[in-house]
Amino acid sequence: MGLVALLVGHGEPFAVHAITVKHMAAMVSWVGIFAPAGTPAPIVAQLNKALNAALADPEATTVVYMGRRTFPALAAKLIAQGLAPDTPALLAESLGQADERLVRTTIAALAERLTDVGAATAAAVILFGALAPEQG
Length: 136
Fold this sequence. Notes:
This protein is about 25% helix and about 20% strand. The protein has helices at about 40-55, 70-80, 105-115; strands spanning about 60-65, 90-95, 100-105, 120-130. A hairpin with a 7-residue loop joins strand 2 (about 90-95) and strand 3. The protein is globular.
């Protein structure tokens, strides 16, 4: 699929580099969080809060593979956690296919664009936290 070697911005928004290039990424992590059925709601809420805080790290480049229509809710949570609304974002669909589509925008604009998406198709959304404008 090539997703691991997809993109990392460096220097200017959306400059394209493989994440395996020296000095381009300090670490690449794939994370999944699961809990057994019947996990108490307070524990689920605590895990969810910790995950959202980690995803909103302004120093990170984060790749989330998810249904497009669920992204607006995630974006709202990340912005509430402190991720700047004008953080550069990239929507990547059908990677490596003839109908591949890349949409370069910001987290807030992408959330608005995907608010009324009917189909539940999945896409990779890349958030370039380290490239977000300074908040002051």
